[in-house]
Design a protein that fits this description.
Layout (H helix, E strand, L loop, with lengths): L4 H4 L1 E8 L6 E7 L5 E5 L6 E6 L5 E6 L6 E7 L3 E5 L5 H12 L4 E7 L5 E7 L6 E6 L4 E7 L12 E7 L5 E7 L10 E5 L16 H8 L3 E6 L8 H5 L8 H15 L3 E9 L3 H12 L6 E3 L1
Length: 299
């Protein structure tokens, strides 16, 4: 398979082959829009699109119980959503049954025995730090192997909600908002804007985030912003962050803060920035560029 990115305007990345070896699966990164997962026939050179999301790229490839053959992908939006090339395939049906059993959680099969009877399943959410289960596909029984924090009850922390807003130049941005567990509905709260590190190749996820939950437990609302330059929202959004440190990337955080205030989510007099790596830089740059907007910064 040969792809001339200069002429096709696409970049193609091999993922693996179908079980019978007749098709190759590729991830196609486009100049505009999000990526496409496609099947390529080496005999006819025909490429057939299989999976695509209008908002986000695929962030994890799902494989059959041989742990080799691609069968689908996970997409990160308001939560983790698994999608498959063939919903009627046995492993796709297994995923759906596990998702039903672990309702409210994301599910990922990490390993399987050679006879495909036993599978190791990772289960997690924005409130669950992660559990591993050994699932018997014959007896349809799951035993918990271990938890990342066995002592931690998921109902002790708040849920995380995906939010969206437009930057000043019209670019649609998304992020995740977490409010203290028993916060009064509609009440503006002290807000921590928490830019992620990287910045390139990184993105904030729907998951249990230690810093977020620690701050929420202390009474703060926490806003994690997927500003331009990040991964997994399409190449154009990534490229939009080129040479924009302290520029439009920083403006995205400012716009997110002002959006949260306007929506009545944040107390305008009690907003701070906090981050690590690039996030630490963005926190300090934020109070430098917008001293009247933020009370403090930590990085």
């Amino acid at each position: 398979m040969i792809n001339d990115a200069a002429s096709s305007k696409n970049r193609e990345f091999p993922l693996g082959f179908s079980a019978d070896g007749s098709l190759a699966y590729v991830r196609v990164e486009q100049d505009t829009g999000t990526d496409v997962l496609a099947a390529w026939d080496p005999i006819t050179s025909k490429s057939t699109p299989l999976l695509h999301d209008d908002t986000v790229d695929s962030y994890r490839i799902l494989r059959d119980l041989d742990c080799i053959t691609p069968i689908g992908a996970s997409y990160m939006s308001d939560r983790v959503r698994n999608r498959f090339f063939d919903e009627k395939a046995p492993t796709a049906k297994l995923y759906r049954s596990l998702e039903k059993a672990f309702d409210g959680n994301a599910v990922y099969i990490t390993l399987a025995t050679r006879d495909r009877r036993l599978v190791l399943v990772y289960v997690w959410s924005d409130r669950n730090n992660g559990d591993y289960y050994l699932f018997d596909t014959v007896d349809t029984h799951a035993d918990r192997v271990f938890s990342r924090r066995e002592w931690f009850p998921p109902d002790a922390v708040p849920a995380t909600t995906q939010v969206s807003f437009k930057a000043r130049d019209g670019l649609e941005l998304r992020g995740y908002l977490s409010r203290p567990l028993h916060a009064e509905a509609g009440k503006p709260l002290p807000l921590i804007v928490m830019p992620h590190g990287g910045p390139f190749g990184i993105f904030d996820k729907w998951e249990f985030d230690d810093d977020t939950q620690l701050l929420a437990a202390a009474g703060y609302a926490v806003l994690r912003v997927n500003y331009r330059g990040l991964a997994y929202y399409g190449r154009a959004v990534t490229v939009a962050g080129a040479k924009e440190w302290g520029g439009r990337m920083q403006d995205d955080l400012t716009d997110a803060t002002r959006w949260a205030i306007k929506q009545g989510m944040a107390d305008a007099s009690r907003v701070c920035l906090y981050g690590a790596s690039y996030g630490g830089y963005a926190a300090l740059m934020g109070v430098t560029k917008e001293p009247g907007l933020y009370r403090c910064a930590a990085g």
